[in-house]
Specification:
globular, 47% strand, mainly beta, 13 strands, four-stranded antiparallel β-sheet, seven-stranded mixed β-sheet, 0% helix
Amino acid sequence: QGQLEESGGGSVQAGGSLRLSCKLSRYSYNSACMAWFRQSPNQEREGVASITDDGLTAYADSAEGRFTISRDKSNNFFYLQMNDLKPGDTAMYYCAAETERRMIGNCPLTRVVPGFGHIYSYWGRGTQVTVSA
């Protein structure tokens, strides 16, 4: 209930591109914060990019200059365009959303913020991205 749906993952060679899509659930149509996270085996889930309801974006250092997050309000989707992919980008990618805007500025690239708790209420099940050398 309220689960988001990712799509667009796949296997590419280094230097290639992929575009991930996230379909918002009806419970999260009016999301104030949307983000992409990724997780590799035996690694913590890390934030990749986030976007606010008014279009303010933030990127992890590893994604800056290569990835672009965007949203389509009319169709209730948001996206992650990934260019110049590297083997280190291999991971399960998750989209996340939150309807309550509890912080000013950029939406966090962490799941938990001290003093605020868990930031994102809605999550997808993930889509696998594999980049070969």
